[in-house]
Amino acid sequence: MPVIEMRGIKREYRMEGKKNEESVVVRALRGVDFFAEAGEFVSVMGPSGSGKSTLMNILGCLDKPSAGTYTLDGIETSSSNSDTFAFIRNRKIGFVFQSFNLLARTTALENVELPLFYRQKDRGEKRNKSKSEAGARKEKAVKALKEVGLDERMDHFPSQLSGGQQQRVAIARAMVNDPAFILADEPTGNLDTGMTLEIMGLFQQLNDMGKTIIMVTHEPELAVYTKRIITLRDGCLVSDVKVEERRSAAQDLSQWKNDHSLLAEGA
Ligand code: ADP
Ligand code: MG
Question: Which residue has its alpha carbon closest to ligand 1 atom 24?
Answer without folding.
Answer: 13
